Every structure is written in structure tokens, then in C-alpha cells.
Amino acid sequence: MLTWDVDRRRRHPWTVLYMKGMWARRDKTAFEGAEHTLRAARERQRQGDAPPGRWTRLHSRVVTEDHGGMTVWRLHPRGRAPVARVVYLHGGGYVHPLTPDYWRLLRSLARTPAEVLVPAYPLAPGAHASEVQARLLDLLDESPELPTLLMGDSAGGALVLVLARLAHDRGRPLAGVVALSPWLDATLTVRAEEVRRLEASDPMLAESGLRAAGRSWAGHLDVADPRVSPVHLDLEGLPAVDVFIGDRDILRPAVDELGERADRADVLVQVHEVTAMFHVWMTRAIPEGRRTRRRLRDVVRRRAGQAARAAAD
């Protein structure tokens, strides 16, 4: 079953200026051109993941763990017992490490209150989909008493859908899946004309670099394989899925496709669209970002509560 709501409020004046700044800085050049994209990604990987800073550590108790050579940060809310556990997978086209903006969103999620796990998973081109997914699935095999949700953005938004399918097939229960601006089609061929039309209004993403990153991540798999492009994933039996998307995002057409497939499947998919928003706006210091972060906390509480009630029945 599919439901779709649209927030049609006009952009805040600060957000209009912020987006003009994105164009002025030419943010989307990070994904323009195949060779440039992978070369720039390797440089960012050499710089490493941005760790939780002082502000995050002030608001949450942070524990750094090692899971078989993969760093995992665990955020615990201060002074309140968590009602949920969120495993968060960051985006970046499978080639970029964690950036400081993510910690703004992660701090907010911990205020749900929730325990938040943030794995710094291996990236392409040094790592590929099947091996990384197996390692992340092992992380999910922990058996906490708290209801567990998977959440991720962009590439991480695709990964959480794939992991939800794998976890379901293992009999591992989840309270829900939240995909933020998800990269559902690594080929960018689903509704390709609309993808090309949207690229002119997308201040962050470009087709050429994304396709190169998708091929690098796929490894031995076909790029259209559901484990790489979950727009083709079998949705039957998955937990409730919440998708957040802006209409200035070249990844939006695949969300339309997923919505049509979800409407015919035994799964609840709720799409939350925000007009005039760009890719992964909910991590940014803009009014619409703050509003969406509050809504995400509500989603986590609602899905965790539904899972807890179902387990008690």
C-alpha cells in the first residue's frame, strides 16, 4: 500500500540564499565526470570520516566500537532511556565518507530518544556491495530489546532497503525502514528523461559521476541488480518504509517507480515529499532541515511504538 503526502510550503528566504550558495560553490562538481568523481572520492577517503565533534558529545554519550575492523559510533541519549534503536547508514554515492553535516541529523535522532548506531562502512572502489552488505547484516544480528529501525540517506537510503530484504529473509524483525533521498536506481535509466530534466535544477548531483560510482560499488554484480538498485527489489513482507524526497533531486523519478510497485505489494510505503528541496536537505542548517528532523523523530517514535505493541500482542 502506498501513501504520499506533499509539503508545499514555500522555501524560507534563508534556504533560497543557501541554495544559491550551493550553485555558486558548484557543489555538484563532486559528481561531474566519471574519472573526476572517483579521483575526488579517493582524496576524501584519504582524509577519512568526520568523527562526532564536541557538540555531538555534549548532547549524547558516544561510544566508539570496532566491528571486525569497521568503526561503529554508538550514540546514547543523555538522561533518558531510549525507546528505539536506529542503525544509520550515511550516503555519499558509496564513495564519500561521513561528513560533519551528518552529525547534526544524528544528534537529532538521539533526542527521540533513541540509541543510534553509525557504522563507517567500507567504500568503493576498494569495497563492493555484496561484501559490505554481509558485514552490515552481521551488525544487525545483535539482539537488542529495543525496536530497531534502519535509516539512511542517498546511497545509505538504498542500502537500508537491501538490508531490510536480507534481514527479513533471515527472520530478523525490524520496526521500520526510513530512506532519505534514496539512490534507488544506480543505473539512472529508470524514467531517464525525467532524470535528465531534473539534473538542471539539482544543485548537488550529476548523472555521469553517479553512474561511475554505481558501477564501482556493484563489483561483480550487475548495476541493475536489486542489491545495487533496490528500485527492483522484492518488497513483499518488508516492514513499513518511510521515504523522504525533494522535487529538485535527480533521484526522485525512481521514488515514483518504487511507489507504483509498492502499491501492488504487501508492504506499507509512505512517501513524504517536500517541494523545492534538494538532495539530503535534512542534514543541513536550514529551517526545512530542522522541520524534517523533527518529523523524523516522530516517525521513529511511531514505528517503534507500533513494533512494541505488536510484540506485546
Structure description:
- The protein is α/β, with parallel strands linked by helices and 313 residues long.
- It has a single domain (2-312), classed as 3-Layer(aba) Sandwich (Rossmann fold), CATH 3.40.50.
- It has ten helices and nine strands.
- The chain has helices spanning 13-25, 34-47, 54-59, 101-110, 129-140, 155-169, 192-199, 207-218, 252-262, 287-312, and strands at 2-7, 60-67, 70-77, 84-89, 114-119, 148-153, 176-180, 241-246, 269-274.
- It has a nine-stranded mixed beta sheet with strand order 1-9-8-7-6-4-5-3-2, sandwiched between helices.
- Helix 2 packs across helix 8 and helix 5 (129-140) packs across helix 6.
Number of strands: 9
- Average pLDDT for all residues: 94
Backbone shape: globular
CATH topology: Rossmann fold
Q: In terms of per-residue confidence, which ranges show pLDDT below 50 for 5 or more consecutive residues?
A: none
Specify the number of helices: 10
Largest sheet: 9 strands, mixed
CATH class: Alpha Beta
Q: Tell me the β content.
A: 15-25%
| Helix content estimate | 40-55%
Order of helices and strands: EHHHEEEHEHEHEHHEHEH
Fourth CATH level, the homologous superfamily: Alpha/Beta hydrolase fold, catalytic domain
